[in-house]
Amino acid sequence: xxxxxxxxxxxxxxxxxxxxxxxxxxxxxxxxxxxxxxxxxxxxxxxxxxxxxxxxxxxxxxxxxxxxxxxxxxxxxxxxxxxxxxxxxxxxxxxxxxxxxxxxxxxxxxxxxxxxxxxxxxxxxxxxxxxxxxxxxxxxxxxxxxxxxxxxxxxxxxxxxxxxxxxxxxxxxxxxxxxxxxxxxxxxxxxxxxxxxxxxxxxxxxxxxxxxxxxxxxxxxxxxxxxxxxxxxxxxxxxxxxxxxxxxxxxxxxxxxxxxxxxxxxxxxxxxxxxxxxxx
Length: 280
Known about the structure:
Layout: E1 7-11, E2 14-18, H1 30-45, E3 51-55, H2 67-71, H3 84-107, E4 112-116, E5 119-121, H4 123-129, E6 133-137, E7 141-143, H5 157-161, H6 167-176, E8 179-181, H7 182-187, E9 193-195, H8 198-213, H9 217-232, H10 235-249, H11 252-263
Parallel strand pairs: 2-3, 3-4, 4-6, 5-7, 6-9
Antiparallel strand pairs: 1-2, 7-8
Helix pairs in contact: 1-3, 9-10
């Protein structure tokens, strides 16, 4: 499938989604909000790759939501479109649809790695907060910029960012609209590593992606499911869930292959995940 908001390639079981509109600061256009979840779900549901890398081109990762999305007519439901309550309910559904675009990253069966250079602004923060790991070039910065245009971030920043960094930092960034530089973002745990430039960043992230792609896909997706579940539940509930998961997902043949590959000094060979059958 061809996409207008980004390019997508798959090699060595690693999918690479790259924003390719540097002249427009890779803003998130109206097409992006439908193309992104469609691409993610296609990769995940059809087991097309074992890892996804999201990167960008040009000076900035993304300047956030395109103004066309802000200024486009708001959706309405059946009934009187001039009724404020009808329009407000419809707008709530519209926001949910935008949120679902990034939830697709969180719910993907495979890890998602973000490689960020320059500005990651507004909706970009919502997006990378839904990724499994974030890596930066030294010139990168994060900015919850919605406050600067008189609105509250609403597509996922707060529910997810509050689980990634101390709440005080979220509040400062949200209330002031200040930039969070890459070095400080690493200090407070938002990013895993900072690299000197964009080229090194992408090279190093791809190394990590290929390393993950060599691991047992069942164990990797199980780890993602467990980490997400532990994030959203109590310790007791998470312990019970992993015990139940292991009852069905414990895979002695895969473990035997891992040990044999180590003894033979080769990369292990694992089966890919099975594509998900869609309801007719």
